[in-house]
C-alpha cells in the first residue's frame, strides 16, 4: 500500500503572535488566512501554511528578556529573485541576515535569517 503525504502546515509555538504575524505578512508578504484573538494566526506561504500558536505563560522566562526560541528546525524558501537584492531588502527591514553562501558542486545560493523570536529561515536561489 502506497501512502502519499502532503505537508499542509508548519506550526510555530511563539510568545507574541501579533509580532510574528506582522513580521511574516510584511517581510514575506504572506497572507493571513485565519486568526483568533492574539493566540493564533495562520499564514499562506506558497504550497504550505505557517501557523503561529501562542505558547502558555508557564513556558515564558521573563528574566531572560526578549524571547528567542532555540530550535533545530529551519524553513527554506526557494526564491526566483536575486538573492543579493532580497538579502538587502530584508536587512533594510531590520531582519537579522547572515552572509550569502554556497557549496562546491551545489546549484544554489543560500542565505539564513531569523524572525523576531529566533526561528531560522533560509532563502535559496538557483545559480
TrEMBL record:
Domain VOC: 6-126
Top-rank lineage group of the source organism: Bacteria
Keyword Metal-binding among UniProt keywords: no
SUPFAM superfamilies hit by this protein: Glyoxalase/Bleomycin resistance protein/Dihydroxybiphenyl dioxygenase
This protein's UniProt keywords: Lyase
Record's keyword annotation contains DNA repair: no
GO molecular function, one term: lyase activity
InterPro entries in the cross-refs: Glyas_Bleomycin-R_OHBP_Dase, Glyas_Fos-R_dOase_dom, VOC_core
One of the Pfam families matching this protein, by short name: Glyoxalase
Annotated TM spans: none
Protein name: Putative enzyme related to lactoylglutathione lyase
Native species: Pedobacter cryoconitis
